[in-house]
Amino acid sequence: MKSASAIKIHPLNSEKTQNGKFSYNESPSQPIQQELLDYVSPDEILEATGLIEGAVCRISVNSYERNPEARRRCIEAYGANCCICGFNFGEKYGPDAEGYIHVHHVRPLSKIKSDYVVDPVTDLRPVCPNCHSVLHLSGRCRSIEEVKRLLVEIKRD
Length: 157
Ligand SMILES: [Zn+2]
Ligand SMILES: [Zn+2]
Fold this sequence. Notes:
The chain is mostly helical and 157 residues long. The protein has 7 helices and 4 strands; from the N terminus they run ββαααααββαα. The chain has 2 domains: 4-58, no CATH class; 63-156, no CATH class. The longest helix has 13 residues, at 144-156. The relative contact order is 0.15.
């Protein structure tokens, strides 16, 4: 796992706002930054939540996905199968991997107020790391339904 300092956002384009959070200013003349975001997995971004909160906000990855209690209750409610492709770690890798799954936070951070409390059943869904990456790929916030549709379209081709 990379440390927060391993993720570099160009200092000229990362400015701290009044509330102490970083805003990430994306511009077409700075292709390197988009490239950086393209290659950062949700896991890696999570390590840097405090550092580049603006960038994190844009791709809707946050600490709710890492909260052990919230994760536990989400998996309790939905099971440990990926809710997009159905992948199950226990089935594929055996007992050592049984129950492992990523948890995705479905509510965009931009719609969250400071007193927000995560509801593990409404706001979180179990997803495999592959589908999780596609949900956040290129800094976009795809919906679960959107990624499901991508899978169906590929199968049809
Ligand atoms: Zn999946
Ligand atoms: Zn996620």
